[in-house]
Write a structure and sequence with these properties.
The complex is a heterodimer of chains A (about 325) and B (about 400). Chain A is of the alpha/beta class and about 325 residues long. Chain A is about 20% helix and about 20% strand. Chain A is globular and about 65 Å long. By secondary structure, chain B is α/β, with parallel strands linked by helices. The chains are: A alpha/beta (about 325), B alpha/beta (about 400).
């Protein structure tokens, strides 16, 4: 038997919100976006959930991490579906996340993307691959209004004693509420600590209509067994990578890219010694270069360079 | 050919470890299994066995030592009793999950409190879901044989699972009996060298026990479940070869004693089966249609064989030598598992549980007599009035 899964499992009125952020330094703001929106919706009598993705690495600085909310007029039936499979709203706490992350994966037709950036929506659009379902792209300079809140309070499902929505998360929640009708601004303001920041996001987000998407329903089938048992490693044992670990490509952790000013480099190789990921190598013409597939953009090379030959440049300045 | 000796279960086990030419042994003392390690230490000191003997700082470390050694390609042996067995609990699942055929002897000891040396199967049975092959020896001879059999079964490439070779503390471990100690040529014919599938090797580095994504979890568990399933065929083959080479007459999963035309039987495992058989024989002499069915392999639980064996009788008394507080049916693990095996037989076969021999008390002949009497009573009335009886308090 084949069913139309969208119909079999559909939950009318359910809104899924997914926030992407950088591990450790922006976890809190990612959490704040989803908790602020869920709390505001709860005030309106909606059914809500909010949580952090459990398999993203929560303890690695800069690694892409996700937080989720679900808001519904009805009891949430999909409450233990592991992740938001078809988000209505995607929020990025940092612009570089558009690179190397499929942030629009599964986006519902007509869905919204909100990005924390100084740049215009037209520029951000260049980095998005499949935008066929994207209805609205919103950009807001949240970092220009307030900062990231760096705290471990509220991590790992514990109580957040620092309060919700004191920083960037408040701006982005406001922007999301403007772009997608889901909660009233007054209720959102009633849940966040920094109400000015939240109102700023609501009022100043630059919205761009990307696609006119009607109520398109994609047809899915019941998922079949995804495992190829023959191809699986025995007892979970994995051969150590000889050179590169394709299972741990870390280039998408980068928010800034190291750039070498050749004239200043004296070839001391201190950066090579200090790079924690062994991503610095020498090219055939004897110059140092960076393996951008694995460089996490930590900036240690720039910090230790005695001649200031390495500078860190925002990743999104590069269109590659 | 073998040599007859009067030895205890602990010495018989050590003899088998010597014959299996084990490479790495890790020890930590606790009664009653300690004697195995004393004997192995003596063998090494006297030059009878060439093996690394690591005295660990506790059972958790003990199991960790053989975990690593087995991954490095060594045939390994360890053991414990009672709370020593449970102290190492964390390490059992990683060992079977990495599919390392470590062998551990468990000479049963009651879990605390109090500090009771007596035997009870609880210590080993709480480990039953850890992915280890498991079964009980009822005599010193069987203790020796089980050790060799389990290396062969566990190291088979179709299985690659660790094994708990269990023996009742004191009853098997400390009472010397006549044992045929095989010679090395026989063992060589039976037991091929150990070859790990993913041996640690500095030239071909690999990660074992790596952190994985959740979607790798189900197939890993499934691989282990398949290994346990495959083990049944391998167990049969191993017992066939063992019987042939060593001149034994073991049935791999269940043994039946005097069950022909029997109406009621007692079903149990371990040393107390010997007393049950004795009582059944005496009752038979007076024309009672009683028998005993003994479980030889506990993991993998031989569901079909147990069903085929037990479904012939009117009433089965399942004796659990373990404390399983709050368990379904109020008896023990064997009762729930026997009943599961008999699922589908309906009311035709009646089962009742007896929890007996706790704290290391012997299950006396009087007690087995009372159990058989209860079974005959049920056969007559057709009524099971109580799911399980705690002996002697309730029977």
């Amino acid at each position: 038997m084949e069913y139309d899964v969208q119909k079999l499992f559909e939950e009318p009125g359910l809104i899924q919100i997914t926030t992407w952020a950088r591990g450790v330094i922006q976890n809190k703001d990612a959490r704040d976006v989803v908790f602020a929106l869920a709390n505001a919706a709860s005030k309106e009598g909606k059914y809500v959930q909010a949580w952090e993705n459990y398999v993203d690495l929560p303890d690695r600085v800069n690694v892409p991490v996700r937080a989720y909310a679900r808001i519904s007029p009805n009891p949430i039936e999909s409450k233990y579906i592991y992740e938001n499979e078809n988000p209505d709203v995607v929020v990025l706490t940092e612009e570089g996340l558009v690179k190397g992350n499929n942030v629009l994966k599964g986006l519902k037709p007509g869905g919204v993307l909100i990005v924390n950036t100084k740049r215009d929506p037209e520029y951000i659009l260049k980095f998005l691959s499949d935008t066929s379902n994207l209805g609205i792209l919103g950009c807001v300079d949240a970092t220009g209004v307030t900062g990231y809140i760096k705290t471990l309070s509220g991590a790992e499902g514990a109580t957040d004693a620092s309060g919700i929505g004191a920083g960037v998360g408040a701006v982005l929640a406001g922007a999301a509420a403007k772009a997608k009708e889901m909660v009233k601004l007054e209720n959102l303001l009633g849940t966040v600590k920094n109400q000015d920041a939240c109102r700023y996001g609501y009022e100043n987000v630059k919205l761009m209509k990307v696609n006119e998407v009607g109520e398109v329903v994609s047809i899915g089938k019941i998922k079949q067994n995804k495992y190829d048992l023959e191809g699986l490693p025995f007892a979970g044992t994995v051969p150590s990578p000889k050179k590169e670990n394709e299972g741990m490509v870390t280039g998408n952790w980068r928010t800034e890219r190291p750039i070498l000013t050749k004239e200043l480099c004296n070839d001391c190789l201190i950066c090579w010694l200090d790079c924690p990921d062994a991503t610095i190598f020498k090219t055939e013409d004897g110059l140092i270069d960076f393996d951008l597939k694995y460089c996490k953009g930590c900036g240690i090379c720039a910090a230790v360079c005695p001649t200031e030959a390495v500078t860190m440049v925002p990743e999104l300045d590069f269109v590659d | 050919m073998g040599k007859k000796r009067l030895i205890t279960g602990v010495v018989a086990t050590a003899e088998a470890v010597r014959l299996a030419d084990v490479d790495v042994i890790s020890s930590f003392p606790i009664r009653p299994y300690t004697g195995i390690m004393s004997e192995l230490a003596r063998m090494i000191a006297d030059g009878e066995l060439d093996a690394e003997f690591v005295h660990a700082e506790g059972e958790h470390a003990q199991l960790s030592v053989v975990y690593g050694a087995s991954a490095a390609g060594a045939r390994t042996f360890t053991g414990s009793s009672g709370v020593g067995v449970t102290y190492a609990m964390e390490v059992y699942s990683p060992i079977s999950g990495e599919r390392l055929p470590v062998q551990m002897a468990i000479a049963d000891r009651t879990l605390d409190p109090p500090g009771d040396f007596g035997s009870e199967h609880t210590d080993a049975e709480v480990c039953r879901d850890q992915g280890w092959i498991q079964g009980w020896a009822a005599t010193p001879q069987e203790a020796l044989d089980l050790t060799l059999l389990y290396y062969r079964i566990g190291e088979d490439p179709r299985v690659l699972l660790p094994q708990y070779a269990c023996q009742d503390g004191y009853f098997v471990s400390h009472i010397a009996g006549e044992v045929d100690v095989p010679d090395e040529a026989q063992v060589k014919e039976f037991l091929p060298p150990y070859k790990n599938k993913h041996q640690l090797n500095i030239y071909e580095p690999q990660i074992i026990g790596a952190q994985i994504e959740p979607d790798m979890g189900p197939p890993l568990q499934y691989q282990r479940a398949l290994a346990m399933r495959n083990a049944k065929e391998v167990i049969k083959e191993a017992y066939d070869d063992y019987n042939r080479i060593f001149g034994r007459n073991y049935s791999p999963f269940v043994e039946e004693y005097m069950t022909e035309d029997a109406d009621v039987v007692i079903f149990l495992q371990g040393a107390h089966s010997q007393t049950a058989i004795d009582v059944a024989r005496r009752l038979r002499n007076h024309g009672e249609k009683v028998g005993v069915v003994r479980l030889r392999t506990f993991r993998p639980f031989p569901t079909e064989e147990v069903r085929d064996a037990l479904s012939k009788f009117k009433v089965i008394g399942v004796v659990d030598n373990s404390a399983n507080f709050g368990i379904a049916g109020g008896g023990g693990v064997l009762l729930t598992e026997a009943r599961t095996a008999l699922y589908g037989e309906g009311d035709k076969v009646k089962t009742v549980g007896f929890v007996a021999g706790l704290g290391g008390e012997a299950i006396t002949r009087d007690e087995f007599y009372r159990m058989f009497a209860k079974l005959k009573d049920i056969a007559k009335t057709g009524k099971v009035e109580q799911n399980a009886y705690w002996v002697p308090f309730e029977l």
